[in-house]
Design goal:
The structure holds two protein chains of two kinds.
Chain A (H helix, E strand, L loop, with lengths): L6 H25 L3 H7 L11 H42 L3 H13 L8 H10 L6 H25 L3 H9 L4 H12 L1 H17 L2 H6 L8 H12 L3 H34 L2
Chain B lengths: L4 H13 L14 H21 L2 E2 L7 E2 L3 H7 L2 H32 L4 H10 L1 H4 L2 H11 L6 H4 L1 H4 L8 H29 L3 H9 L4 H12 L1 H16 L3 H6 L11 H11 L3 H26 L12
Antiparallel strand pairs in B: 1-2
Helix pairs in contact in B: 2-16, 3-16, 4-10, 4-13, 10-13, 13-16, 15-16
Classes of the chains: A mainly alpha, B mainly alpha.
């Protein structure tokens, strides 16, 4: 069917491109000039003397340590999710028991719990457990709160594995753990990539749990560093914005890299 | 939904018919570690917040039983009432701004040209940023002395948007839309692609133009998606926190002190953890009730199919 181009919609989408892109451009431009250039020429000007001073300054202000802490939290959260969610989804999809259905309902309900709702009791529990101002105390609730979505995604993916494949495994007399390792996991690659990306994003961008559950510089994460940085030296906008860029750089790299993995994983499931 | 059910039914009969009992199935034990972990760090705290709302606790010693004192104080607390009203206002405005935007962008992005894929990838960027980074970015950009308003006076007037209530609420709505519209656009894009093309072909044969097709086919077909997206917006809006903490600190005065921020302030700034717990509980109840009402009113719980009559 021939359709004439929809100029109005095309124009609208370009307006939105500007709304999204312009602030990002202003930010990048600001980080590449010195503070005096920025306050003199204003935020809308193109940087005249390029400098990376803002970025190096952030690192000398402790950003390296914050980065390390965030990486630690992110890796641990992803590891916990990868360890716990695949067996759960396998049980939900393949077990006949009422208990597994109940577990699924519980996780569905968990989708509706906002982190703010539990932040006071979390503070209490983490204190009692002696984990206050300790990265472990941040990792545990962060992992728990990214689990419902991950369970939902992976269960959906595992549901799509055809029953004939399970039957074929059963003919060989394979016990559940072999079915899990040799059939379910390889065919869920796409879903696994999705939950890795999702839980990593959650952990990397997490703010509320670190804000309430940590205190000292040695256990500070990047988002918290940004927040502190703003309240302390908010006037130095170029170096503050450089910190914003730094905080999102790794996520961009992961996204660019993971998008390919996601597509490949999905093709793996589809092309059986 | 109707399109998947025959496949599911066929699969079930196949499973029962051929191999049946020979298929070994995992027991509940496989689900135990994850369930235990989740109960310990998400469900139990939810129970505990209810208990703590009946105690006095300053964060250092042990909580002491206070009966209904926190709840009685809450009813008479003007800031609390105001914060609830502000939460609702910001949430409703957020839904009103983001829904039409994300539907239009989503429907547009569902089309096939290559430039749409590239633009969609750019739209995706704000989603990758943390709420903290987004708030810090906008606060810097809107700085009345060194930010954009100082250079674009024709647009911003005297420039201190965050210094008065209307401006501050406007900024919160705008920043929320900036960050979350891409996500909802993505949802609508996927849902629009799932609409059977035969509907449009039939409508085109009947001589319906693009606008009529949008209102009579696309929108009705997106009904369930709209509900999902709106519930997410409502729950997200009611629990906005990072943005307020960084952009306005609830100010000027208490002009943008929404409930989630007020809860944080009470608990972690005024060390009134019992009162904070009570506010948290009110938030959970409101978010849950709204979700349930929307689900009921829309008939979403009966999973009415949008492809009726196809």
């Amino acid at each position: 069917m021939k359709r004439r181009p929809n100029f109005l919609a095309g124009f609208g989408s370009l307006v939105w491109l500007f709304v999204v892109g312009f602030p990002l451009y202003v930010m990048l431009a600001a980080t590449l000039q010195s503070q005096s250039d920025y306050s003199e020429n204003g935020p809308l000007s193109f940087p005249k003397h390029f400098t990376l001073h803002n970025y190096t300054q952030d690192f000398s202000n402790g950003f390296g340590q914050y980065f390390l802490n965030t990486v630690l939290v992110t890796v641990a959260v992803v590891a916990l999710v990868l360890l716990l969610i695949p067996p759960l989804s396998y049980a939900i999809v393949r077990s006949n028991g009422k208990l597994s259905t109940g577990a699924f309902r519980l996780f569905l309900l968990g989708l509706a719990i906002p982190a703010q709702a539990v932040i006071v009791p979390m503070f209490y529990v983490i204190n009692k457990a002696g984990l206050y101002d300790n990265l472990i105390g941040v990792i545990l609730p962060t992992a728990a709160f990214s689990m419902p979505v991950c369970a939902l995604v992976l269960t959906g993916v595992m549901r799509d594995i055809s029953p004939e494949l399970y039957e074929a495994m059963a003919m060989d007399g394979a016990p559940p753990w072999r079915v899990f390792c040799q059939l379910v996991l390889p065919l869920s690659k796409g879903g696994l990539s999705t939950i890795i990306v999702f839980s990593a994003l959650q952990a990397w961008n997490g703010f509320l749990f670190p804000l309430v559950l940590t205190q000292s510089d040695s256990s500070k994460v990047v988002t918290l560093g940004l927040y502190d940085f703003q309240t302390e030296h908010g006037v130095d906008i170029p170096s503050l914005l450089a910190a914003v860029v730094l905080s999102m750089l790794p996520i961009f790299i992961v996204y660019l890299f993971a998008r390919r993995a996601l597509v490949q994983g999905l093709m793996g499931v589809g092309g059986k | 939904m109707t399109t998947t059910s025959p496949t599911v039914a066929r699969r079930r009969t196949a499973a029962r018919g051929r191999a049946g009992a020979a298929v070994t199935r995992p027991g509940f034990a496989w689900a135990v570690p994850a369930t235990l972990f989740f109960v310990l760090f998400a469900v139990l705290p939810l129970v505990l917040v209810a208990v703590l709302s009946f105690t006095n606790w300053n964060g250092l010693g042990s909580p002491e039983w206070a009966g209904t004192a926190n709840w009685r104080a809450l009813i008479h607390d003007h800031t609390m009432i105001q914060s609830l009203w502000l939460s609702v206002l910001i949430t409703v405005l957020g839904v009103v701004v983001q829904t039409p935007l994300s539907i239009l962008l989503g429907v547009w992005a569902a089309g096939k040209q290559r430039n749409r894929a590239i633009l969609s990838a750019v739209y995706f960027i704000p989603l990758l940023l943390s709420a903290t980074a987004v708030s810090v970015l906008w606060r810097a950009l809107l700085d009345p002395n060194f930010g954009v308003p100082a250079q674009a006076k024709w647009l911003f007037g005297n420039g201190n948007l965050l210094g008065e209530q209307k401006g501050a609420i406007g900024v919160l709505i705008f920043v929320g839309a900036w960050q979350y519209t891409p996500f909802h656009t993505l949802i609508y894009q996927g849902a629009t692609r799932a609409i059977p093309p035969v509907l449009y072909q039939a409508a085109a044969l009947d001589g319906a133009g693009r606008v009529r097709q949008f209102f009579y086919i696309t929108l009705p077909q997106l009904r369930n998606t709209m509900i999902t997206s709106m519930i997410l917006m409502i729950v997200g809006g009611l629990t906005t926190f990072d943005t307020v903490l960084i952009l306005t600190q609830g100010g000027p005065g208490t002009d943008t002190t929404i409930s989630a921020y007020y809860m944080y302030q009470q608990a972690f700034k005024s060390f009134n953890f019992g009162g904070g717990s009570a506010i948290a509980l009110v938030l959970v109840v409101i978010a849950t009730v709204i979700s349930l009402v929307v689900v009921r009113v829309s008939g979403y719980d009966k999973m009415r199919s949008t492809s009726e009559g196809v």
